[in-house]
Design a protein that fits this description.
- Four copies of one chain form a homotetramer.
- Helices cover 46% and strands 19% of the residues of chain A.
- The first copy, chain A, has eight helices and seven strands.
- The longest helix of chain A has 29 residues, at 104-132.
- The radius of gyration of chain A is 17 Å and the shape is globular.
- The interface between A and B is large, with 43 and 42 residues.
């Protein structure tokens, strides 16, 4: 009997978003893909496209900050007999705001979306992976994971927490065969979000001034394929002309 | 008319704790001290001792994770006509736990106690300090602020968030005259908590193997006294024989 | 006319060493490989093996710390009409020594071998690459690049210098199309050096407890293949069971 | 018999320079001060001023990069019966230069002045201090110690090496009672060098936009006075309005 291998991507939204592009790549590599996100419409659209490309996919409506949803997501995978080769958390919620105007709800929401989601998803992913003694768990970070700059202080506080979570999990679970990876996306991803919210910025950056989603997916895949004797825990991804 | 100058310390608990020792030092330097914490009994005991030493002190029962309490704390200071020279956040809540056994409540509570408290306290402190265009705001960090090691991953995720908050606030408010400081306590503080919870560890460490609270207070005071042309944002404090 | 594409690897010594393995991988990918090192015998042996595998290779005797040798190395490449796609500096010289016993010659030699070599090689590589507006320049770091621990303080001082060099070069030359990469090898490489000098350690570490050279080469190649919109500047490589 | 206590400052040049200001402060605190530098004229001038202020001082002509000079400096101290309470290395040599124009001599000289000097001075200082089982050893870093930015890449490579040296020495010698400190000067020091070389920059920065030398000396002294149960290894010093 062949293993039924899968990847699960949390944070799948618009078709032109990082989550969808990772899912597409994993599907192209022959994995069944569980795509999870809050919008059923968007998930269905991404699922349709993946299937047209020959991919095998299961959409699961889930809010990564709701424990029950995350547990249910991984139960669905197990119930269907799938092994989780890859679990990628791409949820990312950013708000630019002077600190004195930041309300407790905003500070809490940013932490919930960026860090608590990572905790719930990571914990459940590892539980699944430990059964098979292997698997790659990706957390998607940002420039702010390493440096807190106003007006992104609240976002940075959340992302720094996520980074520490990833680091602690790597130390705890690597020896058990789970590859925990923190990817620092140091720049703007070329996708629907950027093109809708700051089209002029996108235009000014020009070709390759924004991270191409397929290029990001290449590196996720390459890191997943690393031999356990030489695993990467953290890497940055940055457009060649991005100042840093 | 003379300015009524004060310090406010959040996280004052047992008399042999960091909060009380900072309050004592600030009182010795002639500042009126507002001490805040959750236990009225403990606050009263610390207040009595400070007064016996000639200090001027106001205890304020407050839970740093409750927005209303923190706002009320700073209102009490203002209503009484005090200027805030120093605001020190010393709340610190730590739990050692394997990640897979960590419940969402624990992960959230650690963040609430260590990071959200810092946000609320820091925000309100800066609002008060900006009126006078000066003041020193201290955040108390830990070894885990810089490195996430199991079984302290959840604690580290919270403390890393606090550190990013402090860094972002320093960048935002230093140019307006607010000195924001992040102190990395890299070791165990000699106090009631350590002596109660791990007495053997305390004994094994021996003299000066634990951070003396008065020694910590010395450095807080020295940093507060720094000239604005040469401010420290981050410093570590570590017993001389602590491995790092 | 087809471009004559090549890779150059500095620090090629024993056949079972990182330099030789990188060269082999680049040759397998179809690049002509210039291998450089101080021992003509070792270079010839590696060259023979590469050719037996179908590789195209030119050995160049060169001491990376001698400016004339490094300049001559890149002149040989240009004279032969080759474009440099990849330049990899793998020279690594380590000595364990208490600081008080460290002589100025030792401290200087470690810097010369680890940092000055990187400067000379990097500078000449960039000069060559700028003509073609592309190329990947690898610097090979170590655990000590990030943390100085006795008795490796002198080694760490040299490797930290190399890391800063790589970082500054990335900032200076990335916008001109040169991909500068710093690889932190956080563990012991399985090769002739380790097996000769500490065989018991090698045995104790067990399978995959040492970095497999082919696994390292995989990641170098993957990073070289990254799209310019999502380049990695720094990544760590570590055996899954290596504490960090 | 009273101990004859002293401080030694390496890198004393102009009267309005960091070295001289540190020496002045240590003299004011009652320590005999050995001031060392390459220019006899400048040393004599600083010595005269210190003596006019009531200080006790011995000038020693020494090039910190010449091993014999450094050894001789500490021999002079011992021969005169002095104990070294403080040893401060303030040598700092910076050059702004595009990497491709940087000659091997420049790269080497920057390392020699910034890093090798630190090694020689630090090693000899620790040898002296271990006899008395105490002492504070200061290394003076810069913004570039933490971040390599062109056109300061070569300077950064040297300063990063110095930082690693300091860190390794702290780990090796702290448990033996030697307090090793790395001070990151993140800004421009108000002194003769800045006022001569970039007077417009100095004017534009305005009051407190440059680090006041006396303010720096305050922090060196405060760190020296720290209790061994709570030592700082690294701190930054930065004008309040300096972006970072």
């Amino acid at each position: 009997m062949t293993e039924k291998r899968s990847a699960v991507v949390l944070g799948v939204g618009p078709e032109k978003g990082l989550g969808a592009s990772l899912a597409k790549r994993f599907a192209n590599e022959g994995l069944h893909v569980f795509i999870a996100g809050r919008s059923e419409d968007k998930l269905e659209q991404v699922a349709r496209t993946l299937r047209l490309n020959g991919g095998s996919v299961t959409p699961v409506v889930a809010d990564g900050s709701v424990e029950h949803d995350v547990i249910h997501l991984f139960e669905s995978i197990e119930v269907n007999g799938y092994i989780v080769d890859i679990a990628a958390c791409t949820v990312d919620s950013n708000i630019s705001m002077p600190l004195l105007e930041t309300e407790i709800e905003t500070f809490t929401q940013l932490w919930t979306q960026n860090c608590l989601v990572g905790f719930l998803f990571g914990r459940e992913a590892v539980k699944a992976m430990l059964k098979q003694h292997r698997g790659t768990l990706f957390f998607t970070g940002a420039t702010a994971s390493l440096r807190a700059k106003p007006p992104f202080t609240s976002f940075a506080a959340a992302k720094a927490g996520l980074r520490a979570l990833a680091q602690g999990m790597a130390r705890e679970f690597s020896p058990q065969g789970i590859h925990v990876v923190h990817v620092v996306i140091d720049g703007v991803i070329d996708g629907e979000r950027a093109r809708q919210h700051f089209p002029k910025f996108v235009e000014a950056k020009g070709k390759d001034g924004l991270l191409q989603r397929e290029a990001i997916a290449d590196s996720y895949w390459a890191v997943h394929c690393q031999h356990p004797s030489a695993w990467t825990h953290e890497l940055d991804l940055r457009p060649y002309k991005e100042p840093f």
